[in-house]
Design brief:
alpha/beta; TIM Barrel; eight-stranded parallel barrel; 9 helices; 17% strand
């Protein structure tokens, strides 16, 4: 599995604990990959929070990837950046990031092929199922996910509506990891839910 097979995506509006306490809880449960996604703060505030999350993830020897902002990822020495289709082009991002990880969000087969040809280290593909976390269009489904996995050679990270109820089905498509936000935060006990995600993913490793 790619970096433990689970990427936890942060969101201030998803957890009453706050971003840093939420990240600590999922790290305590065994998650070792965090994507810091923040749309509502100033860039300065994003930088400072990313800096704090880098110190936290370092204590757990976990990977931190910053969403959208290649410059902030570099400034805090994060492990990489995750870019959407409307963000900095992959070629320019690679020139900035050097050998650090670059992930690209993709929503169809052509975008997946383009990301691979452009030198992405991994792709996020989805939404696989309906999701309210991010407006990424209609669900692509398991069949399309399986097709993307068979077409590209780089790691495919499934995203969108993934929960404990459908996690097994997603992993059966041959993905290298899953990205989860609200699906991990819906349970009453975050640590228990995150631990269950880790346990199920380990069964498919």
């Amino acid at each position: 599995m790619f970096f433990g097979g689970i990427c936890f995506i942060t969101g201030r509006d998803l957890s009453p604990l706050g971003v840093e306490d939420t990240v600590k809880a999922v790290l305590d449960a065994g998650v070792r990959w965090v994507q810091y996604r923040e749309k509502g703060l100033s860039r300065r505030e994003v930088f400072h929070q990313a800096e704090r999350l880098k110190k936290l993830t370092d204590r757990y020897r976990a990977l931190l990837v910053v969403n959208d902002h290649a410059d902030i990822a570099l400034a805090v020495d994060a492990g990489g950046v995750h870019l959407g289709q409307d963000d900095l082009p992959l070629k320019e991002a690679r020139g900035m990031m050097g050998g650090k990880l670059i992930g690209i969000s993709t929503h169809d087969i052509d975008q997946a092929r383009e990301a691979e040809a452009g030198g992405a280290d991994y792709i996020g593909f989805g939404p696989v199922f309906p999701t309210t976390t991010k407006d990424a269009g209609s669900p692509r489904g398991l069949e399309t996910l399986r097709e993307v996995v068979s077409i590209v050679s780089l790691p495919v990270v499934a995203i969108g509506g993934i929960s404990l109820d459908n996690l097994g089905e997603v992993l059966q498509q041959g993905v290298s990891a899953v990205a989860v936000a609200s699906g991990m935060l819906k349970g009453e006990d975050l640590h228990r839910t995150a631990s269950e995600f880790v346990k199920i993913v380990a069964e498919y490793s």
